[in-house]
Specification:
This protein is α+β, with helices and mostly antiparallel strands. It has 5 helices and 14 strands. The chain has helices at residues 2-20, 34-43, 70-73, 240-247, 255-261, and strands at residues 47-52, 55-62, 79-86, 96-102, 107-111, 120-126, 133-140, 145-148, 159-161, 166-172, 179-187, 190-201, 209-218, 221-231. Mean pLDDT is 81; it is low at 1-29 and 258-262.
Length: 262
């Protein structure tokens, strides 16, 4: 369904461009209408397209030859994607080309990640059951260019909440509910992690306890503000889930502080 929507947006943009041309090229024996060229290109393997605001982005994925270089052989991101940005009013050449590594065939999606009212471009470069990651490029309307925000690529399963101005992430590490929860805000134009909640089975206790830690952004750095171990009993770790849920509220700063305030 997503692919069909992308194709329709691309075909619409290209067809409108063709219809608006005042002086179409003279037909030749091998020429074909622009919309037919677009349709043929899109149905070919490894091609996608998506409309992002006023521009069209086409994607061409290429599988890279496997390498024996030990520094690259273990990398999951052995393939490449070229994202070409087009002005629908001038399809002679892309206004920008973005090339990145990707794990297998990814896909493009859009979101207003910096809450400026303009859609931004994402490319899902790693996915699966867990974790899932995407690249992000913010649209700069003055420069008519996309600008990459590298921190976004570190957020697993990013969720953008325009109501709170928060981007959250979750990376599961086991079926026991362990993993990393992160919360980001834009501070002075930078995407900044303002809370980091990590839950991991404690190897030092032979995995019979679960360690929960919380770090908050304080004085320009992440600082640990909470640490607690939850012992396992009959397959459960006490009230671990309830405690973690409390910390997932960014207005919560610990039971002791809340008790003092009340």
């Amino acid at each position: 369904m997503r692919r069909t929507i992308y194709f329709a947006a691309a075909l619409l943009a290209l067809t409108v461009t063709a219809c608006q041309s005042n002086e179409p090229p003279a037909p030749t024996a091998t020429a074909e209408p622009l919309e037919q060229t677009a349709a043929r290109w899109l149905v070919e393997e490894n091609h996608d397209a998506i409309q992002v605001g006023d521009v069209l982005v086409t994607a061409e994925w290429q599988e890279r030859e496997k390498t024996e270089d030990p520094e690259e052989a273990d990398s999951m991101l052995e393939d490449r994607v070229a994202l070409s940005v087009w002005d629908p009013a001038d399809m002679d050449a892309p206004i920008q080309v973005l090339t990145k590594n990707t794990e297998g065939r990814g896909y493009a999606w859009t979101v207003d990640a910096n809450f400026d009212g303009l859609p931004d471009l994402c490319w899902r470069y790693r996915w699966g059951n867990q974790p899932t990651y995407s690249y992000l490029w913010l649209w700069n309307p003055e420069a008519m260019q996309f600008v990459e925000e590298p921190v976004f690529a570190e957020i697993s399963m990013p969720e953008v909440n325009s109501a709170t101005g928060v981007i959250s992430g979750w990376a599961r590490s086991s079926g026991a509910g362990t993993g990393l929860t992160t919360f980001y805000r834009w501070i002075d134009g930078r995407l900044t992690c303002v809370r980091r909640i990590e839950a991991e089975l404690n190897a030092e206790s032979e995995y019979t306890t679960l360690l929960l830690t919380v770090e908050d952004w304080m004085d320009g750095a992440l600082t640990e503000v909470y640490r607690e171990e939850f012992p396992e009993h009959n397959g459960y770790f006490g009230n671990f889930f309830e405690v973690r849920q409390q910390w997932e509220n960014l207005d919560y700063h610990g039971a002791t502080e809340n008790a003092q305030e009340s």
